[in-house]
Design a protein that fits this description.
723 residues, single chain, 4-stranded antiparallel beta sheet, mainly beta
């Protein structure tokens, strides 16, 4: 999960809110039970913006229930519709038309998955397969490289799973856009706002993401907007997310425990909001506004790593390179277990020695065989000769003899059989291996489609199904005869990772909808692994040692360019291993991996950030990896700096000894009220007569023997009036 944030963190040398979010995430060790429902908003749309709960009518059939867990590195998901909905779906009479399936009962299939930001392991159970003896997708676990699309997680939910995407994966769409950053007070809460924008076309279309981080809850996103504007129609699509509750787990990280999400559209956006800014309250005039509501039902601290648990009946684990049997001795499967089981099968596609023939192709080949036709052809010629002789001699013929002979001639199987119609299309990339640099986020490719059936195909549309797959359809529509093909220029949105990938397309034809998923392989010239490293919990003079690997990929027939890896002065470094070899499956590329052991020697307290940089000898940076760490005193607080607005703020004790508790408040600045509200929590709020400017500390006595009082830094500047 942390790896997905690395390229964003490079934008700022000083630690920013995204770095603080990452530090909080790495301290989350918790398991929750949740439910999520959909419905229609009732009442004004600005209630959430003003910090009030909305009123909405929920659809009970939309309820999704499940469990979610996180160990700071990976997440666990287990979700589905309610059992009552699944039973109704299992009895549903499906309707199929033109290769499409229509459902009368909409459901979310039972899904169990683990995900670490790079690898997704999952199995699903479709209720329609219950009457067929069970779903094979449940008994065979799949492990796939994970990029932008959620795949089987698409309809699930979780604290950071906001409908069709997950935070911070939403930010990956804006990887090359540097955000605007400022501080605000929203709904009475001091927040740090980041605004991202990127152009969708030269015609003025744009996409935006606006996120407000709340320092009082570990820099969780308190409010977020996902926007897409089309200038030609003056149309804005918006999704707004509001985290209304968050809870601190025992390991020190905050977890969103309740959020609401509104989805709506605004026509005439530019005329209605000519001076739009990220603090504008959007008020859609649509008759209905879609609403989603996530809430936590049970909250439990987690001690071990997340793992797949529901393995009864599971017989195998498979990657893109093949499957292996699940060890019968294992009752759970962690991501490290899956990596160990699959090895190269996890990332190296299976090499086929020959193309597999499907039933239609075998039938077609059988029909084309000519050996069985020869006797029939000879018999037909003999009949034709006999007919000619009889006609010439004008013999007395029975009135029906000649027509019968002609019918026999026409109906003779030796005259040929009509082949069974075969509709099939193949797809591949003209160059399936793409050599890219670390700043490549959009990849131009040439998609080759070929008519592999025996019917003419009229290609009407090629749909990538996502804004990250754009297809040049200027040559369409086009008719492909059997054995012919076409080349379509496509642009793929990707993350710069060395890995095999698949890109699904839907091809609409006059014979129905066909789906293809051509594979390709990206090789990044330079990469660090991991591509982000953080440690938010270094206590006083504690140590931090970790390993960092730099991988360079280059053509085998050229001399590898010399690269310099520069390390920050806060760390001592030594080279621990060097490995070289050929990149599997390519033949023409080689790699060199150099592993370094880094040890933090800087003793300064506070939060810090540095960069490790791989650069050419002329100084041009090729890739970087951020290092973020925080060194705290034995007694500290979360947050370590309280910015007072108009509401009370909960402050939590952070101490490596969990037996240490808060006793009483010793002192607080003028106009600031502080109360020990639990053994490890202080509530801080402004008094009615609090001055407009406060800069001081709340001191709290603890049970830590021989330690000074806990100091909580409190500041207040004249609050911005509510908008």
């Amino acid at each position: 999960m942390l790896a997905t944030l690395a390229f964003l963190a490079m934008a700022q040398l000083q630690p920013g809110p995204l770095d603080a979010f990452r530090a909080n995430y790495s301290s989350i060790k918790v398991e929750i039970e949740f439910d999520r429902t959909y419905g229609d908003l009732k009442g004004p749309t600005d209630r959430l913006w003003l910090g009030r709960r909305p009123s909405y009518v929920e659809d009970p059939d939309s309820r999704v229930i499940g469990r979610w867990a996180c160990d700071g590195k990976a997440e666990y998901f287990y979700f589905s519709s309610t059992e009552e909905i699944l039973e109704r779906a299992a009895k549903d009479a499906l309707r199929r038309e033109n290769s499409k399936v229509f459902f009368n009962v909409h459901f979310v299939a039972k899904t169990e998955a683990i995900w670490d930001g790079e690898i997704l392991c999952y199995h699903t159970e479709n209720p329609h397969e219950r009457r067929n003896g069970g779903d094979r997708m449940w008994t065979a676990i799949r492990a796939v490289p994970f990029e932008r699309e959620l795949g089987p997680l698409d309809r699930g939910s979780g604290p950071f799973h906001w409908e069709f995407n997950m935070f911070p994966l939403l930010l990956k769409e804006f990887g090359q856009a540097e955000p605007k950053h400022r501080k605000e007070v929203r709904a009475g809460r001091p927040v740090e706002v980041e605004v991202y924008r990127r152009a969708l076309s030269d015609g003025g279309d744009w996409a935006g993401f606006e996120v407000s981080y709340d320092p009082s809850v570990g820099y969780l996103p308190r409010m977020a907007r996902d926007l897409e504007y089309i200038r030609s129609t003056d149309h804005l699509s918006a999704v707004e997310t509001y985290v209304t509750e968050a809870r601190l787990c025992k390991a020190g990280g905050f977890v969103p425990t309740e959020w609401y999400q509104m989805s709506f559209q605004i026509d005439g956006f530019a005329s209605k909001f000519p001076n739009y800014e990220d603090d504008t309250i959007l008020s859609p005039k649509a008759p209905t506004v879609g609403m989603a509501h996530f809430r936590t039902l049970k909250f439990t601290d987690l001690s071990g790593p997340v793992a797949l648990r529901d393995l009864a009946g599971v017989h195998s684990v498979g990657g893109i390179g093949g499957s292996v049997a699940r060890p019968s001795s294992s009752s759970t499967l962690k991501i490290s277990d899956v990596r160990g089981l699959l090895g190269k099968r996890l990332t190296t596609p299976l090499q086929m020695s020959m193309h597999n023939l499907d039933a239609a192709e075998l039938n077609e080949l059988e029909q084309r065989s000519s050996s069985w036709r020869i006797p029939w052809i000879l018999a037909a010629l003999a009949v034709a000769v006999a007919c000619g002789v009889l006609i010439r001699r004008r013999k007395k013929l029975e009135s029906g003899l000649l027509p019968l002979l002609l019918v026999g001639l026409i109906g003779s199987p030796g005259c040929g059989r009509v082949s069974r119609p075969v509709v099939k299309i193949g797809a591949a990339y003209a160059k399936p291996i793409a050599y890219i640099d670390p700043l490549t986020y959009e990849l131009p490719m040439r998609l080759a489609l070929r008519n592999e059936g025996n019917q003419n195909l009229r290609i009407l549309k090629i749909d990538g199904g996502c804004t990250c797959r754009k297809v040049d359809e200027s040559a369409l529509p086009v008719v492909l005869m059997p054995g012919t093909g076409l080349i379509a220029e496509v642009r793929l949105g990707i993350s710069p990772l060395t890995m095999p990938r698949f890109s699904p397309f839907t091809v609409e034809t006059d014979h129905g909808v066909l789906r293809v998923a051509p594979p390709f392989y990206t090789l990044v010239s330079h990469q660090f692994q991991p591509d982000a490293a953080s440690n938010p919990s270094i206590i006083e003079d504690g140590d931090w040692t970790f390993e960092l690997t730099h991988r360079a990929i280059y053509r085998s027939d050229v001399i590898q360019p010399r690269i310099e890896v520069k390390f920050p002065p806060e760390f001592s470094t030594r080279k621990s291993a060097v490995k070289t070899g050929k990149v599997g499956g390519t033949g023409e590329y080689s790699y060199e991996e150099t592993t370094y052991a880094l040890t933090l020697r800087d003793q300064k307290p506070g939060e810090h950030k540095s960069l490790v940089t791989a650069s050419e000898l002329d100084g041009r940076a090729l890739c970087q990896v951020p290092l973020v760490w925080k060194r705290s005193p034995y007694l500290s607080s979360i947050p370590d700096r309280v910015t007072l607005g108009t509401r009370s703020i909960r402050v939590f004790l952070r101490c490596p000894d969990e037996a240490v508790e808060l006793v009483k408040v010793l002192s607080s600045p003028k106009g600031v009220k502080a109360v020990v509200s639990s053994a490890r929590e202080v509530t801080v709020s402004p008094e009615p007569d609090a001055p407009s400017v406060v800069d001081g500390a709340v001191e709290v006595e603890t049970t830590a023997v021989g330690r000074p009082a806990l100091k909580i830094h409190v500041v207040r500047y004249a609050p911005v009036a509510s908008r």
